[in-house]
From TrEMBL:
InterPro entries: NAD(P)-bd_dom_sf, NmrA-like, NmrA-like_oxidored. Transmembrane segments: none annotated. The keyword Glycoprotein does not apply. This is NmrA-like domain-containing protein. Residues 5-257 form the NmrA-like domain. The lineage of its organism: Eukaryota, Fungi, Dikarya, Ascomycota, Pezizomycotina. It comes from Podospora bellae-mahoneyi.
Amino acid sequence: MASQTHSVFVTGVTGNIGGAVAKLLREQHGWDVKSTVRDPDSPGAKALAALGVQLLPGSWDDIPSLVDAMSGIDKLFVCTATHVEDPGLEQVHAVNIVRAAQSVGSIKQVVICTSVGVFSHQEGDKAQHSTFFDKVMTAKRVGERAVTEDSPWKWTILRPAIFMTNFLAPQVDYFSPGFRASGVWRSTMTSETPLALVLPEDIAKIAVTVFGQDEKYHGRVLGVAGDVLTVEDALTQLGDKTKRSYTPYYMSDDEIEEQKESLCFTVAEKSLRHMADNIDLDELRSMADLTSFKGFLEKQEELVKLAYSG
């Protein structure tokens, strides 16, 4: 008996996560995939179109255009972007996407991808959180509520951990300022708190598994990581690959407080110490073939060595 065919609308299809979801849905299941794009002539858009992804005009700021683009779909993947200059814009976009989906009326399942930081986020608690983190996680929480509250569909929330690709250039200079030059990785972590890491492609694998088993994962909130290890172990593995020595620096609470206005979570947000508390690696590994940090370093050896070559 042939497997059932579905039609999925994937937001952020030219991004790392959305693009990987669209690719897997087409290649593994042959499902119809639709999305909106700003520039259909971009290399990423053209590659997706070649896979059979239907790319339509539309904007997350324009609900009617989203309604038109979602016509006929029965599944939806929501993954909105953080806007550094205006974090609140993300929640506007998420709510617009959900309102459009409700108007379409044919959608039976929604998977939303947010952040592992939502687990430990206490909305509006400025004593506990850095300012930027609070704004970003509030926006992501609003998106989750839009999907789950009084919803007519089955839903699942994916909350991915820190991207392994943040150890590559140029991302590493934002998330770990000065690390490449000094070899010292400053963070709000402690020597005991584990670091949860994930590849964007592996988030997509989990999403596709969830799409294929909507009953099983309905109402679930899944922390998503491919590996959980101490900071020291991560730096040792990085050092083995780059032939350099790296040292962790665990910031004191006073030092973290001084960084409260930083846009970089790793030096401003203490709640990252709890990021691995809601990661069930055994379950995740039963859902998909996931990449360890060591495996990532091997797979991206050329880019890793280029980033840390001095």
